[in-house]
């Protein structure tokens, strides 16, 4: 069940985040602009995890005592809450993982480890093709590279266009009868580009290929419904959506999960064990070997409550306005090159830039001296940066608690950084 709605009062929202009052030194308040890497947690999320740990902490499932029952109820209740947040038809389609990276590895490993009992569309074999994009985070690239290496499949990719969107002009030739998987990010963690899910799903369905969506950057920032998107499998991370670290989600259509072999094996994911062989439980237990991240799941459910109460449409509008403000401000600074599309409904969230002749690590240090906490480097997207001739970029990413005044301070900080470096030229 969704959380009751609340007013989108930015001052009240900021009061929910204890860490935002931190001073980096006596004269420097913190301006946190790195939510794309790890978001901060509001008090309700912190309180939910603490309440579980101080009241219900126990091993889930199988225990006959009341504490085990309470812990199991909390854990499975969190699954139901996450399913509701994602628009999933059933909580049995929600698998808890450590993060989006593990969720994507789970899928890639499973598709390469089936046997003759596994349906053909869930087995990647020699000569098959896996299609990704040139803008992928390493988490949605390296697992597919490894799957291709293990199986003899061919890895192909959709290239980037010069306007920082996908070049889909050759999509019909990239998607062939040998394509088994199309894996792509919903929103680029570097560019802010929102990819055309409907068109890619349509291309995959034309050849009965699976679609795997990396939603780590999109699910926390916009209305998100797995049923409406039409994809087959989705990965996301709790720590990017105001939740704890150590918790992620793989959502998949139940009929697919029920036919996929497990990724990790051991306790909790079995149906029956003999010395010679074992059989495996139905999803989601099949993919949750060992002791799961219980308190983290409880915290993630609270994060879903928090986001839903604010309203995903209002969050998206707020962050898009901040993105427009940042792009307009940066465009007026000589020597700054924005790495990403122009402001539109198809880009939001992350604003990356390059200062000519300056390493992003140096840029980040100057901004940090002003209290501006941004991300620097290649952001786990080396191929994307190479495509545009960059060693790295500096990235600001906005959240529900970011203010227009903070974005103004960011733009001013970048202008100051350019002037600072210019004084050494």
Characterization of this structure:
This protein is an alpha/beta fold and 425 residues long. It has 2 domains: 10-41 and 311-422, Aspartate Aminotransferase, domain 1 (Alpha-Beta Complex); 47-308, Type I PLP-dependent aspartate aminotransferase-like (Major domain) (Aspartate Aminotransferase, domain 2). The protein is built from 14 helices and 17 strands. The strands form 5 sheets. A 7-stranded mixed β-sheet has the order 4-10-9-8-7-5-6, with helices on both faces. Strand 8, helix 8 (226-229) and strand 9 (233-237) form a beta-alpha-beta unit. Helix 2 (43-55) runs antiparallel to helix 10. The longest helix has 21 residues, at 66-86. The radius of gyration is 22 Å and the shape is globular. The protein starts with 9 loop residues before the first helix and ends with a helix. The mean pLDDT is 96. Keywords: Pyridoxal phosphate, Transferase. InterPro entries: Aminotrans_V_dom, Aminotrans_V_PyrdxlP_BS, Cys_dSase_SufS, PyrdxlP-dep_Trfase, PyrdxlP-dep_Trfase_major, PyrdxlP-dep_Trfase_small. Its cofactor is pyridoxal 5'-phosphate.
CATH superfamily of the largest domain: Type I PLP-dependent aspartate aminotransferase-like (Major domain)
Which regions are unreliable across 5 or more consecutive residues at pLDDT < 50? none
Count of distinct structural domains: 2
What percent of residues adopt helix (DSSP H or I)? 25-40%
CA gyration radius, whole angstroms = 22 Å
Function: Catalyzes the removal of elemental sulfur and selenium atoms from L-cysteine, L-cystine, L-selenocysteine, and L-selenocystine to produce L-alanine.
Cofactor: pyridoxal 5'-phosphate
Catalytic activity: (sulfur carrier)-H + L-cysteine = (sulfur carrier)-SH + L-alanine
GO molecular function, one term: pyridoxal phosphate binding
């Amino acid at each position: 069940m969704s959380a009751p709605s609340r007013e989108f009062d930015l001052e009240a929202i900021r009061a929910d985040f204890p860490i935002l009052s931190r001073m980096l030194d006596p004269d420097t308040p913190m301006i946190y602009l790195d939510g794309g890497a790890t978001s901060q947690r509001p008090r309700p999320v912190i309180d939910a995890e603490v309440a579980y740990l101080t009241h219900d902490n126990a091993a889930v499932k199988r225990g006959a005592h009341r504490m085990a029952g309470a812990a199991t109820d909390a854990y499975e209740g969190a699954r139901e809450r996450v399913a509701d947040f994602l628009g999933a038809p059933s909580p049995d389609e929600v698998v808890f993982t450590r993060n989006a990276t593990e969720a994507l590895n789970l899928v890639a490993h499973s598709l390469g480890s089936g046997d003759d009992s596994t349906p053909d569309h869930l087995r990647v074999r020699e000569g098959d093709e896996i299609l990704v994009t040139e803008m992928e985070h390493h988490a949605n690239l390296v697992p597919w590279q490894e799957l291709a290496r293990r199986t003899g499949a061919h890895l192909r990719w959709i290239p980037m266009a010069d306007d920082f969107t996908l070049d889909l002009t050759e999509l019909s030739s990239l998607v062939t009868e040998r394509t088994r998987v199309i894996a792509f990010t919903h929103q680029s963690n570097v560019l802010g580009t929102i990819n055309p899910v409907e068109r890619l799903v349509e291309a995959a369905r034309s050849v009965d290929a699976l679609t795997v969506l990396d939603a780590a950057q999109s699910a926390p920032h916009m209305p998100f419904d797995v049923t409406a998107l039409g994809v087959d499998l989705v990965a996301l991370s709790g720590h990017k959506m105001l939740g704890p670290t150590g918790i992620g989600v793989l959502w998949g259509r139940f009929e697919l999960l029920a036919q996929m072999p497990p990724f990790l094996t051991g306790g909790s994911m079995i149906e029956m064990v003999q010395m010679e062989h074992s059989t495996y439980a139905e999803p989601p237990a099949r993919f949750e070997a060992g002791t799961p991240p219980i308190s983290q799941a409880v915290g993630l459910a609270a994060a879903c409550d928090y986001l839903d109460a604010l309203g995903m449409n209002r969050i998206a509008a707020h962050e898009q306005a901040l993105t427009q403000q940042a792009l307009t401000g940066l465009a007026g600074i000589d020597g700054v090159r924005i790495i990403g599309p122009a402001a539109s409904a198809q880009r939001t969230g992350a604003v990356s830039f390059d200062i000519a002749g300056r390493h992003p690590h140096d840029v980040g240090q100057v901004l940090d001296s002003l209290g501006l906490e941004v991300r620097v480097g290649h952001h786990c997207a080396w191929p994307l940066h190479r495509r545009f001739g960059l060693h790295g970029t500096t990235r600001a990413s906005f959240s529900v608690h970011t203010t227009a005044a903070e974005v103004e301070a960011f733009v001013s900080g970048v202008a100051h950084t350019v002037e600072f470096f210019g004084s050494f030229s």
